[in-house]
Amino acid sequence: MGSLFRGEEMCLAQLFLQSGSAYDCISELGELGLVEFRDLNPSVNTFQRKFVNEIKKCEEMERILVYLLREIKKADIALPEGEVNPVAPLPKHVMDIMEQLQRLELELSEVTRNKEKLQKNLLELTEYTHMLRITRNFVHRNAEREPVRPQYEEFPFLEKDVLMDYSSMQRLGAKLGFISGLIQRAKIEAFERMLWRVCKGYTILSYAEIDECLQDPYTGEPTRSVVFLISFWGDQIGQKVKKICDCYHCHLYPYPNSNEERADVVEGLRTRIQDLHTVLHRTEEYLRQVLNKASESVYTWGIQVKKMKAIYHILNLCSFDVTNKCLIAEVWCPVNDLPALRRALEEGSRKSGATVPSFVNRIPSSDTPPTLIRTNKFTSGFQNIVDAYGVGSYREVNPAPYTIITFPFLFAVMFGDLGHGIIMALFALWMVLYENDRKLKKTRNEIWNTFFEGRYIILMMGIFSVYTGFIYNDCFSKSLNLFGSGWSVKTMYDQGPWTENIVNSNRFLTLDPNITGVFRGPYPLGIDPIWNLATNRLTFLNSYKMKMSVILGIVHMSFGVILGVFNHLHFRRTYSLYLVFLPELLFLLCLFGYLVFMIVYKWLAFTAQDSQKAPSILIHFINMFLMMGDSGQPLFPGQAGLQVFLILVAVLSVPVLLLGKPLYLYWLHKGRNRMGMYRGYERVRRSSEEEISLMRAHDLEEGSSLDSHSSSSDGQSEEFDFADVFLHQSIHTIEYCLGCISNTASYLRLWALSLAHAQLSEVLWAMVMRVGLRVDTRVGVLFLVPVFGLFAVLTVSILLVMEGLSAFLHALRLHWVEFQNKFYSGAGTKFSPFAFSLLHTNFEADGLL
Predict the structure, then answer these.
(1) How many CB atoms sit inside 10 A of residue 252's CB?
(2) What is the DSSP letter of 367?
(3) Does residue 709 register a pLDDT over 60?
(4) Which of 124, 326, 332, 779 is deepest in the core (most CB within 10 A)?
């Protein structure tokens, strides 16, 4: 948990891997997930790297696995349950896996191809049978049709005597022909229209729809088909009809010339269909056996191929020495994990049987390391909220541990309702208790996955909402009288001015706390339930929640400014404590901290007897900026002088914040330059040419490093730009000073959303539940059941989901903009270790699992 407050210390290490044990060493590192590899071949094309052929083999095996998995899912065969995590296969076992996959693919493709041919033949025979059955009565009836139909009124030359029956055509000596087949139901109207237009009416079309749906051989979807019979005379007309049938993708079948031939064909079709059913059934059984055999190993093979491909991808990032016997890799590794890294390399060398072990060396680097913050299932959700704003810079203070408390609390301030909080907490508790259920984790519903991943956040938000619901004394827009009200109505009758006439003649009466015994004491926890009956309830709650929002906001922002101290101390920027942190804190506290002081002081200093004489805090705060300390009644003695002093401190802190850091860095830069020039002059004066030549000859490596270091330090000193630093600090000063005003006003959303949630809950109760509760007859009990169901649905959909999402987003904005910008830059890069455990999610996304 130590890394939760600040990212872990990272180091750059160099791995020396022997060629024979590199594969096993990388496999061990992938199982542990300790290091992040750097690409040492950035200028080399992907297709020109050493292990590109091995990656192609892995991609070919992935293609076969996708094909096998698609066929397994099509056959509705369940994959074996349970967590399977096989190790990466050895290179010598890869060919065995490849051969098994290719053999399965070949066998499965042959069986599938035979099955498709059988199904297509069965479909053709079935269509032929339907065609013979339906067209049996076509030729026995007169084929007369009205030649001019409504859709063909544009052809006035078509007359009724054009369409003749079969006997008339035979007397004319024309050669009569038939074409029969099937066409899709959606195409029959266009098909008929085309026949009329092209053949000029010298055809007779009869058709009828098939009762059952047939399977389309191309798409595999059920379609509605129509059997048609076309009678024509003349070879030229027949050629045109065949071309039209081809254009509309009709399935043509030969038409028997006699009843005897028809009977023989039908009998032959019946026999062939029975045989095809038998062969197809056996083919499907054999196909299922092949798929069952493949399903036993496809999950394991998939994970192994993924791991193997990832290993070769990492090996392509390494560089080779001149002898090609050693691979060199550079990795970012947490300092605490260096012993585990060495043990992993030793284990990989032992498994491979290498005589020369692989080893690791820690090397210095000027590059900024990635940020690693270890989390668990509870803290990961809150860390994701912070990382969504920006990954923290290296070794920067992490806001996540404080967000665990402040985020659900600010959410609950806006959402605070006892009943709604209990429902939310119970829903999150159910997800937490069943978090290991595979059905809840392995779903494709992104909305559900979002809720499930944030189950601990929802649980904390529900618990805090229960707390704020007790504070607001609000449960489904109703107050709970748990401890008895602190106001006594009976005392107003006994000692107060209320009489029977006053009570009967006045609709609204106000309890006076100045009468002894009326106000017996404050309510033990939260707001007194009698306020739920008061006409000025909304006015009281608005004042209470508005002041509470201001107090919470200023405390939250002040805490963010104080957290910046830990960054200054860790990065050894002591000057920032005096030139950045102290002016920021003084500016915030002298203005808005004083506002919080006035609110608390007014609560404590004035009682019910002198509450009418209490001055307005807002007027005093405005007069503070206008330097009008004598106007109006002071809140406390010496208020005018204190306000002038606070204004002066706040105004003087602005130039310190604006100019302090740039001027100090400029002075520091000039002092270093003068000191460097003096030391360089002394070094040149005391050194002779012989000493310099001996140093370069015998200590070349050290001399080079010293020269490079001195040149880099000189380059850094020359690169110092006062204008750039001043501009950056000016932007920061303007943003902070104006942000203190706008951010304080932004926290008023706590009051606004709390008021909106309470009013929506009250409106929902008044418009739904109160309607059902008013009916006090036996029918009202039955009527209350659907009313309560409607109330429950609206409560969950509007008050829990919509209002909860709104409060969640506003709490998110308060943390990102108002809180984290005081100390958190979020300009780092996340540590992405090479880990096989991260491949499983991608594996499912690729469609393999």
Answers:
(1) 17
(2) S
(3) no
(4) 332
- Contacts for 107 with CB less than 8 Å, ≥ 6 apart: 290
What's the pLDDT score for residue 753?
94
Classified as helix, coil or strand, 182 is strand
DSSP readout, 481-521? -SS--SB-HHHHHHTSS--HHHHHH-S-----TTSTTTB--
Euclidean distance between CA atoms 84 and 88, whole angstroms: 12
The answer to whether 621 touches 597, Cβ cutoff 8 Å, is: no
Alpha helices in 248-258 (DSSP H): none
Q: Are 69 and 848 in contact (CB under 8 A)?
A: yes
pLDDT of residue 137: 62
pLDDT per residue as tens digits for the range 671-697: 776 655 444 434 434 443 433 333 343
Ordered by where they begin, the domains of the chain are: 12-106+290-363 (no CATH), 138-255 (3.30.70.2750), 379-486+521-572+748-822 (no CATH), 487-512 (no CATH), 576-688+714-742 (no CATH)
Place of tokens 């005379």: 233
Please check whether residue 558 is in contact with residue 588, taking contact to mean a CB–CB distance below 8 angstroms. Answer: yes
In the beta sheet, which residues pair with residue 232? 177, 203
Helix (H) or strand (E) segment spanning residue 14:
strand 10-18
- Has residue 502 got a pLDDT over 80? no
pLDDT in tens, 18-29: 888 899 999 999
Residue 379 has pLDDT above 70, yes or no: yes
Q: Burial letters for 131-168: b for 16+ Cβ neighbours within 10 Å, e otherwise?
A: bbebbeebeeeebeeeebeeebeeeeebeeeebbeeee
CA quadruple 566, 569, 570, 572: dihedral, nearest 10: 150
State pLDDT tens for residues 205-240.
888 888 888 776 666 678 888 888 888 877 888 888
